[in-house]
Specification:
single chain, alpha/beta, Rossmann fold, 4-stranded parallel beta sheet, 10 helices, 4 strands, 10% strand
Length: 224
């Protein structure tokens, strides 16, 4: 297929193109492109089996559903993590913390201790490796001409792995650094705070205001 034809090929529709959302309550009709219809019952049954029994995936699935059903619209994210961890019967909780949210991490750590958990926090700048050591030029630092440490999510994960944490919580790791942390974490990972420096760590606000303040989101070809 030529490059020109590839460009003109329509992208396959997916769940974000669906208006019926019939997969939730089955009170409407599935669209022709529905992934639920296309995936095949055999594969659905195989995956569903993973949510049964006493394996970690099954326990996480049930604990999540129990917290959602019991406290829907009643608890904050902080409280939901406490309720979730209680249902898993865990004690050691790792905190993968952005240095810019170290105070939030301290407060959350106190909450966990009061509720009987053993929190252990590792800041993103662990190791104190200058950015230039991994090929980042000085002009790309936030503050030029001085030591500026890389974020080190792999080392964060490894230290928490060594401490054998049973659940790890991300507190404001940067885009991409969170990806590396999740990849290298032995324990299951959930997120307390998703970093958005512009919107006070509420990234969904850009979507809510995309019809006016953030119309730029729909500008094609922006050189980001």
């Amino acid at each position: 297929m030529s490059t020109e034809k590839k460009r003109k090929k329509k992208p396959e529709p997916s769940c974000s193109d669906c208006g019926s959302l019939n997969c939730y309550r089955q009170d409407k009709q599935f669209p022709d492109f529905c992934l639920t219809e296309g995936v095949g019952q055999e594969e659905v049954d195989i995956i569903t089996e993973e949510y049964r029994g006493e394996g970690i995936d099954a326990r996480i699935a049930r604990a999540s559903a129990e917290v959602e059903g019991t406290y829907y619209g009643k608890l904050t994210r902080v409280e939901e993590i406490v309720a979730f961890a209680n249902r898993l019967g865990i004690k050691k909780i790792g905190l993968a913390t952005c240095i810019g949210l170290s105070e939030e991490s301290r407060i959350f750590s106190k909450v966990l201790k009061i509720n009987g958990f053993e929190p252990y926090s590792v800041l993103c700048k662990i190791g104190s490796v200058d950015k230039t050591e991994i090929g980042i030029s000085d002009e790309l630092k936030i503050m030029k001409g001085c030591h500026e440490s890389i974020c080190n999510p792999i080392l964060q994960a490894r230290i928490l792995n060594e401490h054998k944490t049973e659940l790890n919580v991300i507190i404001g790791l940067c885009v991409g650094h969170d990806s590396l942390f999740i990849k290298h974490s032995d324990a299951p990972v959930t997120t307390l705070i998703t970093k958005d420096r512009v919107l006070g760590h509420n990234p969904a606000a850009a979507l809510y205001t995309s019809g006016f303040y953030y119309k730029r989101l729909f500008e094609a070809g922006r050189n980001l």
